[in-house]
Structure to design on (235 residues):
């Protein structure tokens, strides 16, 4: 009987892990789709990304319900309790990743009314590539229980911050050069900010995953390479 109970508990925890994996896959697909729609002015693809947000929300609700049931029925302790509570936190961050991808998709129509400068298009695509690597990798590292990879991934968020700063300055330049660019550039600025925020949520997921595995919190201040100050000096 004890073995049966343990096995069924493991199955319940495994289902929560699968939901986290599904949410991570969907979040990555939404980010990729929203940027592709933005760069190609593809309103149909943007609408699909917006629709996918309802699926993401449903998966989060299912995970929350299952997690609450496990806590009430099993009364888990120590590592098992960390796994359940950590999953709830990670799911909340993944749901926000979906929201932010949806927000990018919602601006596709407005941005598509003007021509995006080629250099700016490359910059946003480069930033989105960095973000997409983070989104896809964080759940993989969690499933693989790879703590060192999570530590590195958390530190790599600095690259996204630096790219965002560069795009911010680039957009300001376009707006100052021609006031007709202001509306489109403002929408693009929000899109870039959403990408930067996705990176922050991935960092949160990495921190929670690390805590689930080790029972230890990562340092509040992650290591930073102060490239932004170097860029400012170069200018």
């Amino acid at each position: 009987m004890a073995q049966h109970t343990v096995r069924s508990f493991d199955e319940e925890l495994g289902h929560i892990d699968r939901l986290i994996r599904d949410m991570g896959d969907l979040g990555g697909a939404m980010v990729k789709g929203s940027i592709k729609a933005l760069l190609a002015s593809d309103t149909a693809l943007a609408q699909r990304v917006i629709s996918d947000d309802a699926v993401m929300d449903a998966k989060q609700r299912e995970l929350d319900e299952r997690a609450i049931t496990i806590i009430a029925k099993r009364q888990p302790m120590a590592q098992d309790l960390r796994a359940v509570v950590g999953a709830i936190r990670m799911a909340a961050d993944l749901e926000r990743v979906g929201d932010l991808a949806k927000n990018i998709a919602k601006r596709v129509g407005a941005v598509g009314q003007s021509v995006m400068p080629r250099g700016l298009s490359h910059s946003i695509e480069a930033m989105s590539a960095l973000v997409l690597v983070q989104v896809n990798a964080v759940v993989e590292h969690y499933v693989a229980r790879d703590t060192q990879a999570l530590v590195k991934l958390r530190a790599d968020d600095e690259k996204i911050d630096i790219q965002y700063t560069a795009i911010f300055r680039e957009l300001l330049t376009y707006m100052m050069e021609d006031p007709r660019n202001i509306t489109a550039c403002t929408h693009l600025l929000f899109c870039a900010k959403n990408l930067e925020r996705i990176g922050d949520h991935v960092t949160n997921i990495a921190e929670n995953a690390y805590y689930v595995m080790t029972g230890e919190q990562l340092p509040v201040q992650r290591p930073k390479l102060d490239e932004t100050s170097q860029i400012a000096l170069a200018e």
The chain has a mean pLDDT of 89. The helical segments are 2-40, 43-74, 78-106, 108-111, 118-144, 147-177, 182-214, 227-234.
